[in-house]
Amino acid sequence: VQLQAFGGGLVQTGGSLRLSCAASGFAFDTYAIAWFRQAPGKEREGVSCINRFDGTHYIASVKDRFTISRDNAKNTVYLQMNSLKPEDTAVYYCSLFLRGRDYWGQGTQVTVSS
Questions:
Q1: Residue-wise pLDDT tens digits, 33-61
Q2: pLDDT tens across 16-28, in order?
Q3: If 0-12 CB within 10 Å is exposed, 13-18 middle and 19+ buried, where does residue 57 land?
C-alpha cells in the first residue's frame, strides 16, 4: 500500500491550492480516504474525508472553503483548498485505514502567508 501526497506550496492569504493523493496497492474504489494536517507545535487533526460512495465530511474550520473529491480511474483523491488562511499552514497528509492499521502518505507542506 502506498499513498503519495503532493501539491503543497506557498500561497498568500485568500489563495488556492489543490492537493493530490495518489494511491496504489489496494482496491482504491472501495475505501475511504482522509486528509489530515499538522501545524508546528500542534497535534495532527483530521480535515476531511471521502468514502467509497463519495460521501464527504469536513471539520468546521474548512467547511465551505475546502472540497474533497476522488477519481477512481486515477486512484487519486484531491483536496481543493480555497480562501486559504494563515491558520491553514501545516503539513498535509492523506491517510487510509485498511486491514486494521493506518497508512499515511509522506505529507506535503502548505504555507499561507499573511
A1: 999 999 999 999 999 999 999 999 999 99
A2: 999 999 999 999 9
A3: middle
Q: Could you write out the three-class secondary structure of the chain? A: CEEEEECCEEEECCCCEEEEEEEECCCHHHCCEEEEEECCCCCCEEEEEECCCCCEEECCCCCCCEEEEEECCCCEEEEEECCCCHHHCEEEEEEEEECCEEEECCCEEEEEEC
What is the C-alpha to C-alpha distance for residues 27 and 43, in angstroms, rounded to an integer?
A: 30
Q: Both ends of the chain: CA-CA distance in Å?
A: 37
Q: Is the separation of the CB atoms in 70 and 49 below 8 Å?
A: no
Instruction: Find, among 49, 67, 68, 69, the residue nearest to 57 by Cα.
Output: 49
For residue 51, what are the contacts with CB-CB under 8 A and spacing of at least 6? 32
